[in-house]
Amino acid sequence: MIVRYLLISVLMFSKLLALPNRIDNLEKQVSVDLQSREKRQLSSLGPRPTDSNSANCDFQSGDEVGMCGWKNLDNTTVLKWLASKGSDAFWIGGPRSDSNNKNLEGGYIFFETSTLPHTVEGENTVSAMIQSPVMTSTGSKGHCVSFSFSISGLSADRLRILLHPSDSNEINGEVSFNNDVVLESLLDNTRGKWKEAKVLYTFPANHSLIIEAIPVSESNQARRYRGYIAVDDIQFKSGDECGGHCTFDSGLCNFKNEPEGEFSWQVGRGSNNPNTGPQRDHSSFSTNRITGAFAYIDAGYPRKPGDRARLSSVQMQATDKGDEEPLCLRFWTHMFGNGIGALNVYIRGSNSGDRKVWSLTGDAGNNWYMGQAPISSIEPFKIVFEGVVGRNSLGNIAIDDISITPGVCPTAPQVAAPGPGDCAFEDDECGWNNPERREGVDELNWDRSTPTDGNRFPLTDHTTGSDIGFYMQLSRENVQQAGDRAFLVSRQLNGSRTAKCMSFWYFMYEPIVDTVGPNLGKLAIWTRTIDGDDNLLMTPVWRLHNGHGPSWAYGQAQITTETDFQVIVEGVWGNNRASGFIAVDDVTIFEGECANLPASAEIVTGECTFDRDSCGWRNTSNGESFDWRMATLTKRPANLPDKTYGAPIGYAYFDIFNSGSRTDKVRLVSPEIKSVGGGDKLCFSFWFAAFGAGESTTLKVYKKDADKLSEDAINEKIDESAEQPIWELNAAELDTARPDWEVAQVSVDGRKNMRLYIVGQASNGGFAIDQITLNKANCNTRPETADPSKKLPRS
Asked: By the 8 A CB rule, do 508 and 523 touch?
């Protein structure tokens, strides 16, 4: 027994000696299992989150161009972003320089929008998506993300910035993007330029941003044309560095309550009264988050009707003259309760005071609604939100998610516009109307249309970029002849010495070009005023001819006038078969000077197509029966169609026959043409057609300094013994059996104000002229035989 006991004791003691090693091994195995499980979990969640600095990227330069930590979503889309540089732009696409415009070696990322991938079942072939590194919570101040972007080409549609929560579900290794939030959508062509945008957002958990480039649909023939969407200089900063932007999640951002108000705006998370005020902030309302706040006015005690609270932004720089001028202010507002007063938005100039740009009154329902207004100022300015208490305490007004984006926008909702003119045509025509038929001023109408009405073009409106949006389209019904036109007339606008600019988007496309050449027609902007003698005055301010591609293009025109006025949008068909499409959308009228865009649409004094009048050119002929006249249906030379549209009318001519041996002269005098800046030469160009016979049929152009001409002197004959023509042509040098249009041009000294004289002479013939233009450039004389310095003296 003793021996057995000893043996058992020894065995147990040996096991006790081995126990620490077994425990140590077990602990090691558990540690390995935990590490393996943690790795598997981290792998399923994606990369570990970092701070926002990891997402900053200028995409480097030269041979080092790269995407930093941004990555294409390979398992989600077959379309890819590329890192590139300007020196490779002609080779693989993209802009010719980076956003700094310093050299061709600066890096950026871009997506070639003409890419046509092989369709892969279950994969996205609609857009290219690139994702930032995973970032931790933004904190209440949020992230202010600035970036440069450039959009160009017929195949480019839009650029979107998406917020992607990192806890989104994964299925078979693919991430679900159903919970993504669109932070910004930019859909306007930047015309080859880089523009800067900012986005302010907050999110309480791990997340990433996705930059999405969307081309036009693969079914759209425009997808075949080269284009790109490019991004550069992505910078993440603290949310309080986004001047003019605010989510109110950490307070009033850089906005301040103004002391002139009777009370103050407050920040809150939700109303305590179900009969007024929002339940929650805008972003939480749309995504069902628990985070978020808004700014509001409390209409309860001790507030009285008419009390005002004013919230102003930091001071911002004046907007520049030119195509970069306007900005777009967007915000969300909640105006619910039967005691709602008013919400007003002002631009406060550093010297000029407050100017109202947006205003809405009354109950708008228990929802958040987006408001937007064009922002422009020739001096530094602030944006001021004013809340006005209504008739009772059920009048809380809230605002949230204020942002400023580059580019002009029409006022929304339309009823919030401070004056007539602004219109996106989504609800109605906003007071723009077609004249009554009995007025007899036009032959056609403008129709409020949508792509779903069966129109081949445009495929989308401009406002929404979809096929359900509305625009105004020049009617193709009842077109009788080339040159038929329609007027779209605004309500009366107040005149002012302050400069005003009209911006709009236009669509002018001719899918099938006639054998004689482009023949779509014309789009023009006029102002209509009444002078002191009650005469109706029509002043052209913008005009563009023929087609400009199957996409919406941006236009703007200066419409400043001191007297009350109306704006007229004129559409003219150049072809009675009306095979093309002319449309207008998103009209906005704002204060400020602006350059005419595109430059070719600028009205130059003296230019004329003779469609309806002579554009200020005056017939000063002394003959009783011979003069310059406008072609009519019943009287025109040799059935000659006009050069502009191929219409039976629309040009000027003189026609002198059967005058015996007497040679008669006719004179057409231009309006006063102002001196030009930036150069000393003007190219005077026109089209001419000769008919008749004989050396006596000539056409000459003279130039006179306008400062030396009295009204009587303008009407006097040209003294050919003392003055030499700058352009001269004899019909004997031309084939006049079948008159056809030919181009003429001559360079003119433009350093002084001047008038041009077109002098015709004939005893048995004549000339027609059309499409007079003046460009700031030097040019050779055409035809060469019209150069007086090269003509041999007659014996």
From this structure: yes
Determine the Cα–Cα distance for residues 162 and 157; give it in Å rounded to an integer: 16
Residue 171, pLDDT above cutoff 60? no
**Of 238, 268, 290, which residue sits at a domain end?**
238
Domain extent at residue 597: 437-601
β-pairing, 124-131 with 77-79?
parallel
Q: How many residues does the chain have?
A: 795
Q: Which DSSP string corresponds to 519-583?
A: --EEEEEEEEEE-TTS-EEEEEEEEEES---SS-EEEEEE---SS-BEEEEEEEES-TT--SEEE
The 8-class DSSP code of residue 337 comes to S
Exposure string for 693-704, b = 16+ CB within 10 A, e = fewer: eeebbbbbbbbb
Q: Which residues contact 781 (CB under 8 A, 6 or more apart)?
A: 727, 745, 746, 747, 787
- Distance of alpha carbon 645 from alpha carbon 546, whole angstroms: 9
557 contacts 341 by C-beta, under 8 angstroms:
no
Q: Are residues 724 and 627 in the same domain?
A: yes
CA end-to-end span of the chain, whole Å? 158
Residue 370 token pair: 């987006």
Which carries the bigger pLDDT value, residue 241 or residue 483? 241
| Same domain assignment for residues 674 and 778 | yes
Return the exposure string of 772-784: e unless at least 16 CB atoms fall within 10 Å of the residue's CB, then b: bbbbeeeeebeee
**Cα(581)–Cα(366) distance, integer angstroms:** 41
For 789, which DSSP code?
Answer: G
Residue type, 767: F
Instruction: Looking at the structure, tell me whether residues 333 and 448 fall in a common domain.
Output: no
Q: Are 471 and 449 in contact (CB under 8 A)?
A: yes
CA–CA dist 359, 418 (Å, integer): 7
CA 163/CA 203 separation, integer angstroms: 9
CATH of the domain at 149: 2.60.120.200
Averaged pLDDT score across all residues of the chain: 85
- Whether residues 686 and 589 share a domain: the answer is no
Which amino acid is located at 559 in the chain? Answer: I
Q: What is the 3-state secondary structure (H, E, C) of 373-407?
A: EEECCCCCEEEEEEEECCCCCCCCEEEEEEEEEEC
SS3 322: coil
CA distance 494 to 411: 18
**268-272, 520-524, 657-661: least confident range:** 657-661
Inside any domain, residue 22: no
SS3 (DSSP) at 210:
strand
Q: Is residue 38 part of a domain?
A: no
**Identity at 768, one-letter amino acid code:** A
Helix (H, G, I), strand (E, B) or coil at 40: helix
Using DSSP bridges, classify how beta strands 308-312 and 156-165 pair: parallel, antiparallel or unpaired.
unpaired
Three-state SS annotation for 109-153: EEEECCCCCCCCCCCEEEEEEEECCCECCCCCCCEEEEEEEEEEE
Tokens of residue 440, six digits: 């007899």
Q: Please indicate, yes or no, whether residues 555 and 638 belong to a single structural domain of this protein.
A: no
Tens digit of pLDDT for each residue in 556-592? 999 989 899 999 999 999 877 778 999 999 999 988 8
Beta bridge partners of 569: 488, 525
- Cα gap 48→135, rounded to integer Å: 8
Q: Are residues 623 and 771 in the same domain?
A: yes
Instruction: Please tell me the total count of domains within the chain.
Output: 4
Residues 306 and 442 both lie in one domain? no
Assign 207 a pLDDT band (cuts: 50, 70, 90).
Answer: very high
3-class DSSP assignment, residue 270: coil
**Helices of type H across 175-290:** 282-287
Residue 610 lies in a domain: no
Between CA 778 and CA 784, with CA 733 as vertex, the angle to 5 degrees is: 20
In this structure, the answer to whether residues 650 and 745 fall within a common structural domain is yes
- Quote the CA–CA distance of 700 and 729 in Å, as a whole number: 6
Judge whether 705 lies within some domain: yes
